[in-house]
What does this fold into?
Amino acid sequence: MEDKFIAKQLIALTINLKSGLRLVTGQRVAGNNFIYSIDQGLWLLALLVCLEITVAYLTVDKPAVFSTYGLNHLGAAYLFDLLILVSIARLARAETTDTGRLLLAYLASMPLITIAIHLLALPEQLYYSHPQGGGALLLLLFLWHLYIMIRLLRIILLVEFGKAFSLAGLSLVLYLSSIWFLPYTQLWYSDKPTQSDSTYSKLNDLSVEDLFYNQYPLVDQALNGLIPQRPGIPDLYLVAVGGYGLEKVFLNEVEYVRELFDRRFDTSGRSMVLVNNVETLARYPLVNRHNLADSLDVIGQIIDPDEDVLFLFMTSHGSKEHKFSVSFGPVPLDDMTPMQVRRALDDAGIRWRVIVVSSCYSGGFIEPLRTPQTLIITAAANDRKSFGCGAESEFTDFGTAYFKHALDKQSNFIEAFDIAAEWIEDKERREQRKHSMPQRFVGAEIRSKLAQLGGVAHSESNITQYTDPSANCDSWSDPALCRGD
It folds into this structure.
């Protein structure tokens, strides 16, 4: 009995799908060509969800990770679409039965549209404001939607053409409005960062033995180029670290930051770069735990620990395990943990620290690195991704916000965070992305120390005091971290 029921449902489903295909492709079809039932509505809805998940998986780079947030968006989008149809049916004065028929016919027409949208990568163009090369496709999609709605209203509800056109236009406007208030999240995202073929080819040609042998003279050369601190003058030293070697965006950032700090923050002769990039193997030492520890150790011997400040900028990919990605293709390198960075700083005897970590999930660095003498800024909360990296990117979103946008207007490292965080929130809201929630920890003693640095103006505004005597945090920070929970 059960087998007969399933067989009957599958036959009805096939008939509905064929009728829906004829409707969206402009072929002749009548309202009585559909088989209407609640069971069929549920079968069609389940089929569409499976189709969305499958096609989205096939169109993303592998390995792919499933996002439950993407499922939330999908459910909200379908619910909103069905509510639009119900509203349009009511405006057309349709009976309840006819409204149900309209919903079923709409679901039966969706599979081809779903496949086309994902294969043409239209979700990203619709929600992320990247219309380049896709404007014509988007226009065709909207016209197709208008045409389908007109046919549905004409065939199912028997609405005359003029009224059908008006109601279909209204449905399109309502559909487009959903883009503004339904945050889009992909069903699948790639957990493997992209890289260019030419970069990977160059890496394969490297001699790993020669590469590691050359690290000692490169590190020595960089450190020997550092000038001593000036007695009685609080000096700022910069170490800029670009960890992921298959995307040039991180090289762009560390070189920009070094040039900016040498020019504006008096670090000329007191700055160095560690970066993994095939184009700079003869210019900069690689990023790895040992090179960073050795560099910090020498800087710790150069500076006056009571007077001078280290600015450590780290940019790369990050993981949910709160590891800083240190990768160079076929060259075996280990990712760095927050405790490894903390140990290197402590062993070097560097007391005053400004640490900026730009990566996904970088908020996980705050708790291990916090001291009363430390300012910590991260691009994201400990459970959030940050955006803007990739093989084609020039700068990450956080790098743009903090170093290009904020520090261009505000030379105060602490207050510049407010400008950067506001800029990022606004950008992510426009692009319908889940907010990365940049974080800031201000140790109780670091503010007055930074005020002593020449050329850096500091103020006490816009900082909320919390109960932890060792930290001043603001509304952008994780309250649990600020309270010391």
Q: What stands out?
A: The beta strands are 64-66, 188-190, 236-242, 271-275, 309-315, 352-358, 374-378, 439-443, 471-472.
